[in-house]
Amino acid sequence: MMAIYKCEKCGSEKEIRKVTIIFIDGSWNAKEALCKKCGKYMDSKPTDGIPSLIRTESSLSKNR
Q: Nearest Cα to 37, choosing from 12, 3, 63?
């Protein structure tokens, strides 16, 4: 599956097929989505086929 990543700062785009997720500067980013123009991490918008799940199990509640 391919995702299109877009830089919010400079507007450049990049197509990425495989990503490595890393935790940098307090957020999860795709390692391969680093913008070569401005040095910021690009973001992708979900496409069809990616579900949005809401977990409702009481064991997952933060109010324990």
A: 12
Q: Which of 42, 44, 39, 36 is nearest to 2 (CA)?
A: 44
The pTM score is 0.60
Contact 2, 49 (CB under 8 A): no
Burial profile 4-18: b = 16 or more Cβ within 10 angstroms, e = fewer:
ebebeeeeeebebee
- pLDDT at site 29: 87
Domain parsing of the chain, residue ranges: 3-47
| Structure token digits, residue 12 | 């450049």
CA 14 from centroid of its chain's CA atoms: 13
Mean pLDDT of the chain, nearest integer:
81
Rounded Cα distance between 57 and 18, Å, is 31
User: What is the C-alpha separation between 32 and 34, in angstroms, rounded?
Assistant: 6
